[in-house]
Design a protein that fits this description.
Elements (H helix, E strand, L loop, with lengths): L2 H17 E12 L2 E12 L3 E5 L6 H8 L7 E6 L2 E2 L5 H8 L2 E5 L10 H11 L4 H14 L15 H13 L5 E5 L7 H18 L2 E6 L2 H7 L2 E6 L2 E7 H6 L4 H7 L8 H4 L2 E2 L5 E9 L7 H8 L5 E10 L2 E10 L6 H11 L3 E8 L4
Parallel strand pairs: 3-8, 3-9, 6-7, 7-8
Antiparallel strand pairs: 1-2, 1-4, 4-5, 9-10, 11-15, 12-14, 12-15, 13-14
The protein binds adenosine-5'-triphosphate and magnesium ion.
C-alpha cells in the first residue's frame, strides 16, 4: 500500500470530520411501541444553519435531547465535533455539553436572578471569577442588543427580550453548536422575525453552527441554509431551503408549506372538474437559476392569447427566485393547454393540469 496516499486520505477524512459539527448515523430511540427516532442520519457543517421541521410528535425534541445527551439513543452513532457521545459516561458528557448551547420556547430564565446573572450563570458553573463572568455577560448583552437591561429582572422583559437573554446565556460558554427547540413559537410574527435576524447575525459574526427545530416553515425560510423534514422519526426529505420550497417531494413537506406557498384560491379549486372542454387551470412552478427568463412574456409571444394569470407570485429564498403561478388556458382550441404545457416544460418549469373550470365566463 502506498503510505503517502493513505496518510493523505486520513488527513482528508479528519479534515472533513472537523468541518462537521454534528453527524448522526442511523439513530434510533423507542418509547414502548413508539419509534420516536427511526433511523435518523444527518450532518451539520460548521457555520451552517440546519432547520429541522416536522409536525407535532414527529420526534424533533427527542432528537435534540439525544444530541445534548439528556436522552440516550437505543442505537446508532452521534458524533459532536467528531466524538461519539453515545459511548460517554454521564461524567464525560459534561465537558461536551458545554460545547452545546440551548434556547427554548419558554426561555427558561431564573426569575430571582437579574438579566446579567442569568447570562453569567453557565460561567459560574465553570468556576470563573465573578468579574470575568460579568464582563463576558456584558459583551453578550451588547451582542443581543440588551446592554441597558443588565440589572433588570426577567419579569420586566417582553417575550422577545427574554429570548435575547436566553440567546446570550446560550452563548456565554462559547459553544460550537446552538440548539434551538421552537425558540420563536411563543412570540408574535414581528418579534419572531427580529429574533431570527439576531440568530442569523450571530451565525455570520461568530460562525456559529445552529440546529433549528421548528414546526413553522416561516422560521426555516427566514434563516436556514438547509432543511430536513422529519416525520414519524424519519428524515423524509432534505436539501437547500430554496430547492425544497420550490419542489417539495414528500406529502408532509407540501402540507407544512401550505401556508406560505401560493395555493389556488378555494373558490376556484372548489369548482374544478375533470371535464376537458372548459378552461384549463394549470400550476406552473419555476425556481433557481433557470427562473431568470421572461417566461410569460415569451409564452405570450409564442402563443398569443393562450393564457391568463389567475394567481401566484415570485418569492426569493436564499437569493434564488421561487415562482409559483396558476394560469387559465382558454378552451377555444382543445390542444392549446398541451401546447402551453409543452412550451413551459421545455423552459424547465414544472407544470400540472389541475382541472377544468366550467363556470368561468
Ligand atoms: N419520555 C417519553 N415517553 C414516552 N413517549 C415519548 C417520550 N418522549 C417522546 N415520546 C413520544 O415520542 C414521539 C416523539 O416525541 P417528540 O417530543 O420528540 O415530538 P416533537 O416532534 O418534539 O413534537 P412537538 O412538536 O409536539 O414538540 C411522540 O409520539 C411522543 O409521544
Ligand atoms: Mg417538541
Amino acid at each position: 500500500m502506498n503510505s503517502l496516499v493513505s496518510t493523505t486520505a486520513i488527513e482528508a477524512q479528519s479534515q472533513a470530520a472537523s468541518e462537521e459539527v454534528v453527524r448522526l448515523t442511523d439513530v434510533k430511540r423507542r418509547f414502548g411501541t413508539t419509534s420516536a427516532l427511526d433511523g435518523i442520519s444527518l450532518t451539520v457543517k460548521r457555520g451552517e444553519i440546519l432547520g429541522i421541521i416536522g409536525r407535532s410528535g414527529a420526534g424533533k425534541s427527542t432528537l435534540i435531547r439525544c444530541l445534548n445527551g439528556l436522552e440516550r439513543a437505543d442505537s446508532g452513532e452521534i458524533l459532536i465535533e467528531g466524538r461519539d457521545i453515545t459511548e460517554l459516561s454521564e461524567q464525560d458528557l459534561q465537558p461536551l455539553r458545554r460545547r452545546i448551547g440551548m434556547i427554548f420556547q419558554h426561555f427558561n430564565l431564573l426569575s430571582a436572578k437579574t438579566v446579567e446573572e442569568n447570562v453569567a450563570l453557565p460561567l459560574k458553573i465553570e468556576g470563573l471569577a465573578k468579574g470575568e463572568r460579568l464582563k463576558r455577560a456584558h459583551e453578550l448583552l451588547e451582542l443581543v442588543g440588551l446592554a441597558d437591561k443588565a440589572k433588570a429582572y426577567p419579569a420586566s422583559l417582553s417575550g422577545g427580550q427574554k429570548q435575547r437573554v436566553g440567546i446570550a446565556r446560550a452563548l456565554t460558554a462559547r459553544p460550537a453548536l446552538l440548539l434551538s427547540d421552537e425558540a420563536t413559537s411563543a412570540l408574535d410574527p414581528e418579534t419572531t422575525r427580529s429574533i431570527l435576524a439576531l440568530l442569523k447575525d450571530i451565525n455570520r459574526k461568530l460562525g456559529l453552527t445552529i440546529l433549528l427545530i421548528t414546526h413553522e416553515m416561516e422560521v426555516v425560510r427566514g434563516i436556514a441554509d438547509r432543511v430536513a423534514v422529519i416525520d414519524a422519526g424519519r428524515i423524509v426529505e432534505e436539501g437547500q431551503v430554496w430547492s425544497v420550497f420550490a419542489n417539495p417531494q414528500a406529502e408532509i413537506t407540501g402540507s407544512l408549506l401550505g401556508g406560505i406557498r401560493p395555493q389556488l384560491p378555494e373558490h376556484i379549486a372548489g369548482r374544478l372538474s375533470a371535464a376537458a372542454g372548459s378552461e384549463a387551470i394549470l400550476s406552473v412552478d419555476l425556481a433557481g437559476p433557470q427562473a431568470q427568463g421572461a417566461l410569460f412574456a415569451e409564452l405570450s409571444a409564442a402563443l398569443p392569447h393562450s393564457f391568463r394569470l389567475v394567481h401566484g407570485g415570485i418569492d426569493h429564498i436564499q437569493n434564488q427566485p421561487v415562482a409559483r403561478f396558476f394560469i387559465a388556458v382558454p378552451a377555444r382550441d382543445p390542444a392549446l393547454a398541451g401546447k402551453v404545457e409543452q412550451f413551459l416544460t421545455a423552459r424547465s418549469a414544472r407544470v400540472e393540469v389541475l382541472g377544468y373550470d366550467t363556470d368561468h365566463a
